[in-house]
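Treating backbone geometry as a discrete language has practical consequences that deserve illustration. Part of our work consisted of pairing the sequence of a single chain with a tokenised description of its backbone. What the numbers capture is local backbone geometry rather than side-chain detail. For completeness, the protein is quoted in full, as a sequence line and a line of structure tokens:
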Amino acid sequence: MYNMCMKKTEKKILLIVGTRPEAIKMIPLFKELKKSFNVSLISTGQHRETIQPIFKFFNVFPDKDLDLLKTSKNLEDICSSGISELKKVYERENPDLVLVQGDTITAFIGAFVSMLNKIPVGHVEAGLRTGDISSPFPEEASRQLISRIAEMNFCPTDASVKNLLNENVPEQKIIMTGNTVIDALEEAVHILNSGNDSFFKNNNLEDMTNVLITCHRRENFGKPLQNILNAIKELALKYSNIRFIFPVHPNPNVKNKVEEDLKDIKNIFLTRPLNYSDLVEIMTKSKLILSDSGGIQEEAPSLNVPVIVLRESTERPEGITNKNAFLVGSNKKEIISVFENLIENKDFYGDIISKKNPYGDGFASEKIRKHIELYFNE
């Protein structure tokens, strides 16, 4: 069925984004859909400062920016003002389909307002689950609610398909495509290889073994973060030949504690939050990664970099099962043990980096476009 060709139509599709991860994962789909449809990219501005550099990097800019953070400072305000502003957009644009991505407040209100206006919804990266509505919070609730609304659930893996089937989502509404983040990553690596800018050159960093660290999730605030920092400090002192690159999240719950505990250790390089291009470059040049990020769990296997996941649970279990990543939470002893095994056991490390990425092959956007063509044709 996917070999079917469809001429460009006047069917109108809106893509709704608001955060950096949404933009990264939706931009390759936006470009792909323009081959067949009348497409507009709408930004809610939920994370305005971090999303703007993504638009610039990929040379794609929103048709409309709602700039919600101008008047909204908390999730409740973002929800209420977002619903009001998106209603106006939908009335003006009169779309035939709305696409939302992932599990953010932007994704939820995009789907919710679509439902109220009887507009079909496509959910990109559907079916991820931890089963615990409080972890991650409020993302787990958002994605579960969106799945009940969506007419099309574009799933990144077989496991996410099974999650939706187990929730009695109709099979005809579930499509396995892979994750568009791999499409974006491949384009990003190509852009970086074509340019001269470099994080390492700009910061005068000499060649040495690198370990990337990211930590920002709410569930790690407090004692869990302290445990993680204690582990990092011990590892950095033991492995003085390794450079630990730690982009520090601006939230005071993270920033103040990280700087207090780690600023005086010579081989720990604390830096500002990274733009996407710098993050991708560092990942490509890292021996391994310690992170509580969801996107990094998906991207790193394509770059042959193992991930130590600093979370108690993950909605991306495929990487854990496939041994691309290791779920350790904030357990200091476990963090150190897995790190030492990966650094010191060459055979073990070699086996890990040879694993195939379970999250996609770089053709997710094309698969989604072809399915939408079929949807409208039928």
